[in-house]
């Protein structure tokens, strides 16, 4: 009988060490630990040949080891250092080479094993390429933000390219870019660079390019709601020329699809559009702050 108290790390790592245990071992913990999931550890460990009898994926767990642990191929996708470490410790008892491809997480166990007993070899993946991709998004966000802040309706653009005096800090490229964004979706365009900045930080921090797909969805939703909001309720309160504060996207939506609905439920529509715009914008930023699993 082993009681690991409240230590989830000890519980999961010791399960890997006991993959070759000769006697059946019962693993327990306190009330809090007994509520936590252990399926993500027992699933890969059972591929070595050991048996783990759980209480619906929770403690207590009966460990029945194997005399001949087999090498496995393991792909860790949760960013869990505990799962990765448990498999590494079990692999030390296997007769052969175990291959592990893991999402970025804490690396204390592999550093310890590599330094002291040289039992593992670490091969770096494509993290540098992903970091460059994340840095590109980060830089793009800052450049677009600078272009938008220094926007002037008098600068050259697609419609009036003959103007030569440029006030935009980033020159002609900044002038054209900011004008395209503001004339297309209006004032909601000021949120775009913030989303790109947080997307770049998420990619750099978590090494996941798929954040681009998730944030593209959020950007599309809050852009549509936001441009419609400004076009309907603040069309003439600021100084954006030609297409107004909602851009041509907001004007098109308010004049074609939602004109009757907005006019009939004006007060309700005001708060609903504002709520959805802020909600999806916040979701696009929360990807950076969401915690990684242990």
Characteristic terms for this protein:
11 helices; alpha/beta; elongated; 6 strands; four-stranded mixed β-sheet
Mean pLDDT: 86
Number of helices: 11
State the distance separating the first and last CA atoms.
Answer: 25 Å
Helix share, percent = 40-55%
- For this structure, the quaternary state is single chain
Give the structure's gist in a few sentences.
With 294 residues, the chain is an alpha/beta fold.
Description:
The protein has 294 residues and is an alpha/beta fold. 52% of the residues lie in helices and 9% in strands. It is built from eleven helices and six strands. A four-stranded mixed sheet has the order 1-2-4-3, with helices on one face. It has a two-stranded parallel sheet with strand order 5-6. Helix 3 (81-91) links the parallel strand 5 and strand 6 (99-102). Helix 2 runs parallel beside helix 3 and helix 8 (211-233) packs across helix 9 (247-256). The two termini are 25 Å apart. The model has no long low-confidence stretch (mean pLDDT 86).
SSE order and pairing:
Blueprint: E1 2-3, H1 8-17, E2 25-28, H2 39-45, E3 51-55, E4 58-64, E5 73-76, H3 81-91, E6 99-102, H4 108-116, H5 127-149, H6 171-185, H7 192-206, H8 211-233, H9 247-256, H10 259-264, H11 266-289
Parallel strand pairs: 1-2, 5-6
Antiparallel strand pairs: 2-4, 3-4
Helix pairs in contact: 1-3, 2-3, 5-6, 5-7, 6-9, 7-8, 7-11, 8-9, 8-11
